Amino acid sequence: MRLVLTWLINAVALMALPYLMHSIDVTSIGAALVAALILGLVNTLIRPALLVLTLPVTMLSLGLFIFVINGFMFWLTAQLVDGFHVDSFWSAIAGALLYSVISWALSTILLSKSHGRS
Fold first, then answer.
1. How far is Cα 15 from Cα 12, in angstroms, rounded to an integer?
2. Domain boundaries along the sequence of the chain
3. Contact indicator for 10, 39 with CB cutoff of 8 Å
4. Rounded to whole angstroms, what are the CA distances from 39 to 34, 64, 113, 114, 115?
């Protein structure tokens, strides 16, 4: 149940992005749900390999290159999902950062309350 709730929270975070950034467009709730699922899969399967491959650059940049990797994952998801559009790579980096903040805030609020009930 927690996994489904996290997925829904991530979809809501994606739905909020077009209101905060005009360079990101999510056409429907269905597109947000699919994009949240694909983004989760991409971050689970591809991101760890990229982190290992780019470790020297990440260390030289004092960890800032992780923002580029997160932006790439966000941009890649936009390329794979119809109804989820990101105008540019820089928009993807900013969108990934904003998406992470919104998702974290919603998860903190909603999942901590549901955890207290158990």
1. 5
2. 2-117
3. yes
4. 8, 20, 25, 24, 25
